[in-house]
Design brief:
Structural class: alpha+beta
Bound molecules: flavin-adenine dinucleotide
CATH class of the largest domain: Alpha Beta
Shape: globular
Helix content: 25-40%
Distance between the termini: 7 Å
CATH architecture of the largest domain: 3-Layer(aba) Sandwich
């Protein structure tokens, strides 16, 4: 039975905006409805192409506000849609009958330098955690983009530049504070509320609204990182060479092969404007990652030690390909958020991503036929991240998603300022994914699926059964709606 069909929602009647005055009076946070002047700002997602039209937006100040909102939703038979930034807003679909619960006001970063952990509020962004940790010589397993929300990223798994040597970021979470769908304030750890702790680490935000999260950090200051640029005309030769290079690659290295059509924008440097490029960016870990409350425990995997010379040796085969620009060198890990050139703020985007088992010649031909130098395509980027390494091995203390399937993770998309652009991009993305379907892995990575995706494509059967049981236990009425529901 889908959530929409569950008993609580069969009698759904839209609530008059005035009824929200009652909720506003009961919480310290802010309630915004369509009759408020700032409605269009309040409902905005990071992905500006997601035209979110909930019944109301609630911005809680603390966990008690979250609980009050969930109970109000219960009394009025509404759904609650938790959202940090809205990076993954596209798959949410129709939000009629829903309260959009924006967690941006749940702040706070508490570093425990003794235990090597950090506790952050649900509204905290990766850039802020990275900066606070760097001041103490510490690092967390952030993704490529500083304005992604910590909680949304961790609930889906979390792939950092160190993921091939340290696994998914979610496997390093130690405690989660949350309000369950049925309104209980809970703390989930390996010892308490074990099924909730399991489900929230990779199983998305289906069971509870997370208010704070604690995870391990590592004493790492520098990495060997950068990018190499080539003209896209060489894509065929370069993708083949990169794929061969990844086969026996040390876990300390993580790179992304990108086909990029740079827009012709005046704010970009002249030599990049309007260019078609191949970019290989990435990171080689060069410091032993001391970390975890107990580094000798099975969970305390350490990064492969590698010094600068070793990193250079690892990258030598790529350098031999002759990039016209090569920025690889030692840099502070606090600057890794600049590496991938992700948009610095909200943009309208349309894209999708899948895991691939292999990238043989036939797959390269299929991909480049649609997106290579001679293709007419609206797709601005095709990213292929090399995964495997520790990402392929189930973390012994991990949660619902404790490993990734396949050797590569593909994401492709572009900018969609209008619905017409989005429709064109959707079709182009679908063509690429269809062409690569023969090599698609058994399960995809939740955080890279930006269209509604059947849960069976995200989790193996036994994992899905356990997640559905957790949903029934913590959100029996199906109150909470996540980006990727379980039905
Ligand atoms: C430019 C860009 C770069 C990216 N780079 C990486 C990367 O390097 N590595 C990587 O792994 N991923 C990456 N991602 C994917 C990213 O991890 C997902 O989009 C992630 O879901 C974003 O989390 P968010 O909180 O910012 O987004 P949101 O859209 O706010 O949240 C996503 C979903 O998480 C759940 N959620 C969020 N907060 C809560 C909460 N407090 N309680 C309960 N549920 C909640 C909800 O179901 C929500 O729909 C990137 C995405 C973009 C757009």
């Amino acid at each position: 039975m889908s959530i929409a069909e569950s008993p609580v929602f069969t009698t759904l009647v839209p609530l008059h905006p005035a009824a929200y005055a009652e909720l506003a009076a009961r919480i310290d946070g802010v309630v915004t409805t369509p009759s408020d002047a700032d409605w269009n700002t309040a409902r905005l997602a990071w992905n500006l192409s997601a035209d979110q039209r909930p019944d109301a937006v609630v911005a809680p100040r603390h966990a008690e506000d979250v609980r009050t909102t969930l109970l109000f939703a219960r009394d009025h038979q509404l759904r609650v849609v938790p959202q940090g930034t809205g990076h993954l807003a596209s798959p949410l679909g129709d939000l009629a009958g829903s309260i959009l619960l924006r967690t941006g006001g749940l702040l706070g970063i508490d570093i425990d330098a003794e235990e090597l952990t950090v506790r952050v509020g649900a509204g905290v962004l990766w850039g802020d955690v990275t900066a606070a940790l760097a001041e103490r010589g510490l690092m967390a397993l952030a993704g490529s983009s500083p304005d992604v929300g910590v909680v949304g990223y961790l609930l889906g798994g979390g792939i950092s530049w160190f993921a091939r040597s340290m696994g998914l970021a979610a496997s390093h979470v130690t405690a989660i504070e949350a309000v369950s769908g049925d309104g209980r304030l809970l703390r989930a750890t390996a010892e308490e509320e074990g099924e909730l702790f399991y489900a929230l680490r990779g199983g998305g935000g289906n069971y509870a609204v997370v208010t704070a999260i604690t995870f391990r950090v590592f004493a790492v200051r520098d990495a060997y990182a950068g990018m190499m640029m080539f003209p896209m005309e060489r894509a065929d030769e370069l993708l083949g060479a990169w794929e061969r290079w990844t086969r026996e690659l040390d876990e300390s290295a993580m790179t992304c092969f990108r086909l990029m059509r740079v827009p012709d924008l005046p704010e970009l440097p002249e030599f990049l404007r309007g260019q078609k490029l191949v970019i290989i960016d990435g990171v080689v870990a060069i410091e032993q990652a001391e970390g975890g409350a107990d580094p000798t425990a099975p969970t305390g995997r350490t990064a492969d030690a590698g010094r600068t010379a070793d990193a250079e040796a690892l990258l030598a085969p790529l350098r031999a390909l002759g990039p016209f620009l090569d920025t690889f060198g030692v840099m502070p890990v606090s600057r890794l958020g600049e590496l991938h050139m992700d948009p610095p703020g909200p943009v309208p985007g349309t894209g999708d991503g899948v895991n691939l088992d292999e990238l043989p010649r036939a797959a390269i031909d299929a991909l480049l036929g649609l997106t290579g130098p001679d293709a007419q395509t609206p797709l601005m980027v095709v990213d292929i991240r090399h995964i495997g390494g520790q990402l392929a091995i189930a973390a012994p203390d991990g949660g619902a998603v404790n490993r990734l399937h396949g050797r590569f993770l593909l994401f492709t998309g572009g900018m969609s300022p209008s619905p017409a652009d989005a429709a064109v991009l959707h079709a182009a993305v679908a063509r690429v994914l269809e062409a690569l379907a023969p090599w698609q892995a058994a399960a995809d990575y939740l955080n890279f699926r930006e269209v509604a995706t059947p849960a069976e494509r995200l989790y193996p059967v036994d994992t899905l059964a356990r997640l559905r049981a957790a949903k029934r236990r913590y959100d029996p009425s199906g109150r909470i709606r996540s980006a990727h529901p379980l039905q």
